[in-house]
């Protein structure tokens, strides 16, 4: 990634400081100006300052934030953030407002404008920029005078405070703010952050668009906090949009983004987060594809299309499956290989072995697909065995695309036997990508077959299109750049080290295709140096990439890392239970197995510590679940896990396995704990909140810290009670501010938390 010499950075700052926009900032001391009636905080909403109400500072606010559009441009390490803030007045009378906007330290305001009323030109807008100390003083004023801790979430940033402006009755004013900053990071990685509230109650509509340009190759653009939708990609430019949830809202919390540059086939960077005791912690290794070889230099693919033509596939599903197969056939390059295997009660194939696609045999391949008819049973095991045991063409990457819409009814039908035979029979290391069409599939079986072969499972709902699902996966398999990946750890002097890390996921690493990334998470056990090595096969032969690490320098930051690790750890534990239940004999005695109870206990502990809900632990966030009794909660979790394990197929079975697959491959924190329901809909859960790395569960009007969720005594008799607005509350705010935990006070209602070993209940005044 391009670096910048000091003179060029100074010139940027001096040029901006000398601009007319910078000169419009007021020099009036911030503490001489009283607050106007509505203080607009775009990150979280509006604070109403007068008249004060017993219900809280937000009650009855006439002015509201109707939307924030963020346009972020990163060019060779310089980030320009442009915010367009729409402020509306829903009342029948004019109102006054001012804006408080957290701005990163070191950023320079390059634009501030206020659109006029009713089309009239606006007067020159003015504002104050409060440095860290003045900003913290402003935060304290908000808390002490207005009893609203909303700003404490952004302590540490600069603060832009606009002068007062009117908002006409029923009207909308638009504020445009832009600022520039020089990004920092680690090695070839640059990091960007945009402050937003972590509160699940955030009602302000946001949209975030990002463009990245670099004179160096961009290996990856990654957000650990939000899902990204790529609009366009290239070696030196990316255009992305932050993905919205099903309800149209963005995930709450700050938006973090990392740009990874790299030369060569792979680029890597490390994020680490220290345990509270400082003796260990978590890590996330991010690997992206750097320079991509020319298409002709990449290994050719050998694709086996395995198509279910049983009677249940008849109609639109089968038509879509054949159309998907045609897309794959046409999408393969001449010189790549294909095999077509079709199965019902029997198993047939186009040729005894995969054939090289040529202009001469293409008509015959098309005709074979067009001649397939849906009828008969489902010999799933027979089709798998034929696909896996056939010899591969030397030098080709063997891939299987396996489609089915039902449970096995012919040949071997036992789930655990089919799974084990597939693992043992995959002697040529074929990558298996499974597609479960509809709900009458054994989702845990399809997932196990795919995951253990460096492939992945895809579930196509009854209302979804098979052709589109297959096409999306096949498009991702374009250009295998690095295959047969292995992860190794060595000491600082290069000797194999088996003690430095543990619980690393994924255990079996996928191949990296063009545009892919690898996220490897794990725990480190000691604060010392070492080496991480990624070994794989590229077009040029064996590749070894080494990254020096030093966990002695890790800090208690990057709080997304332990959460992402916990999500994958829970997915592995939950899947181990489901795979054990593949054998009916084991399923019948599962609840009496001590290992099962230990596994569920660990899942429960991780769920309460990291605030991660799964199908087995979602009951923790439901009203009516009594937190505090650890043994009762464990018994409930065990019973739910057993009941869930009995659902091997159907809508429930597919939803459960989809959630495991989602957690296993999750690249961002999923703060709203979105899970798939039995209708295949992604549903957010507001009963649990993770804020600054700490978990809280909501019961009625009270939020209880996850660390106390299993402690009945602490919940029943907290050590002290603090009333909002009292001197004791101010002291508590100061303490949490020093600890970097002030954002926890933004939870609405009562808060039961632990600070310095003492349990405190924060209550609202009567």
UniProtKB/TrEMBL annotation:
Organism superkingdom: Bacteria
VIT domain span: 49-181
Signal peptide residues on this chain, from the entry's feature table: 1-17
Annotated ranges, domain VWFA: 302-477
Keywords: Signal
Pfam families, alphabetized: VIT (PF08487), VWA_2 (PF13519)
Name this protein carries in UniProt: von Willebrand factor type A domain protein
Species this chain originates from: Saltatorellus ferox
């Amino acid at each position: 990634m391009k670096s910048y010499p000091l003179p060029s950075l100074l010139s940027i700052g001096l040029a901006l400081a000398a601009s007319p926009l910078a000169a419009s900032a007021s020099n009036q001391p911030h503490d001489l100006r009283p607050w106007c009636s509505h203080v607009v905080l775009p990150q979280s909403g509006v604070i109403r300052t007068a008249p004060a109400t017993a219900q809280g500072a937000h009650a009855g606010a006439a002015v509201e934030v109707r939307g924030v559009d963020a346009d972020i441009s990163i060019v060779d390490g310089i980030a320009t953030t442009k915010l367009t803030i729409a402020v509306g007045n829903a009342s029948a009378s004019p109102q006054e407002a001012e804006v408080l906007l957290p701005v990163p330290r070191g950023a320079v305001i390059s634009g501030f404008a206020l659109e006029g009323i009713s089309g009239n030109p606006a007067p020159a807008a003015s504002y104050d920029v409060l440095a860290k100390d003045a900003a913290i003083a402003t935060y304290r004023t908000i808390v002490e005078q207005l009893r609203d801790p909303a700003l404490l979430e952004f302590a540490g940033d600069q603060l832009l405070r606009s002068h007062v402006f009117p908002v006409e009755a029923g009207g909308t004013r638009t504020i445009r703010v832009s600022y520039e900053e020089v990004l920092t990071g680690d090695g070839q990685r640059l990091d960007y952050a945009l402050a937003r509230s972590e509160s699940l109650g955030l009602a302000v509509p946001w949209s975030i668009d990002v463009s990245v340009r670099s004179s160096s190759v961009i290996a990856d653009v990654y957000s650990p906090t939000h899902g990204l939708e790529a609009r366009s990609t290239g070696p030196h430019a990316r255009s992305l949009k932050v993905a919205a949830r099903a309800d149209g809202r963005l995930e709450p919390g700050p938006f973090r983004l990392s740009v990874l540059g790299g030369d060569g086939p792979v680029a890597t960077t490390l994020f680490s987060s220290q345990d509270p005791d400082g003796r260990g912690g978590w890590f996330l290794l991010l690997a992206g594809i750097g320079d991509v070889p020319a298409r002709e230099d990449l290994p050719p693919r050998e694709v086996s299309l395995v198509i279910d033509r049983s009677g249940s596939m008849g109609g639109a599903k089968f038509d879509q499956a054949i159309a998907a197969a045609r897309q794959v056939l046409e999408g393969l390059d001449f010189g790549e290989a294909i095999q077509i295997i079709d199965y019902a009660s029997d198993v047939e194939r186009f040729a005894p072995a995969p054939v090289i696609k040529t202009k001469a045999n293409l008509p015959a391949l098309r005709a074979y697909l067009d001649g397939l008819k849906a009828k008969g049973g489902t010999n799933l095991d027979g089709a798998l065995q034929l696909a896996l045991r056939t010899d591969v063409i030397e030098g080709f990457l063997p891939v299987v695309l396996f489609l089915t819409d039902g449970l096995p009814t012919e040949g071997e039908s036992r789930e655990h036997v089919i799974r084990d035979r597939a693992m043992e029979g995959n002697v040529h290391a074929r990558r298996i990508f499974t597609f479960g069409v509809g709900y009458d599939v054994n989702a845990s079986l399809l997932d196990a077959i795919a995951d253990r072969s460096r492939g992945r499972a895809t579930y196509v709902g009854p209302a979804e299109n098979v052709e589109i699902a297959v096409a999306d996966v096949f498009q991702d398999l374009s250009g295998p750049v690095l295959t047969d990946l292995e992860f190794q750890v060595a000491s600082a002097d290069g000797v194999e080290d088996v003690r430095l890390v543990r619980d690393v996921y994924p255990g079996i690493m996928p191949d990296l295709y063009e545009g892919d990334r690898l996220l490897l998470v794990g725990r480190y056990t000691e604060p010392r140096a070492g080496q991480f090595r990624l070994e794989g096969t590229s077009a040029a032969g064996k590749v070894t990439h080494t990254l020096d690490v030093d966990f002695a320098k890790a800090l208690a930051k990057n709080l997304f890392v332990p959460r992402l690790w916990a999500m994958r750890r829970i997915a592995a534990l939950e899947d181990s239970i489901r795979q054990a239940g593949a054998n009916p004999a084991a399923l019948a005695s599962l609840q009496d197995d001590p290992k099962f109870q230990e596994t569920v206990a660990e899942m429960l502990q991780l769920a309460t510590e990291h605030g991660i809900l799964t199908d087995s632990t979602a009951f923790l966030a439901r009203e009516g679940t009594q937190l505090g009794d650890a043994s009762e909660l464990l018994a409930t979790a065990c019973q739910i896990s057993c009941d869930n394990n009995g659902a091997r197929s159907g809508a429930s079975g597919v939803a459960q396995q989809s959630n495991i697959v989602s957690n296993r491959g999750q690249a961002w924190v999923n703060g709203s704990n979105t899970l798939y329901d039995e209708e295949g809909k992604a549903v957010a859960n507001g009963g649990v909140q993770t804020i600054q790395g700490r978990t809280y569960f909501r019961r009625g009007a009270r939020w209880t810290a996850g660390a106390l969720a299993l402690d009945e005594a602490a919940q029943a008799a907290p050590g002290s009670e603090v009333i909002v607005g009292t001197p004791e509350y101010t002291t508590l705010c100061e303490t949490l501010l020093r600890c970097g935990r002030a954002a926890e006070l933004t939870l609405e209602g009562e808060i039961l938390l632990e600070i310095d070993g003492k349990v405190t209940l924060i209550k609202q005044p009567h």
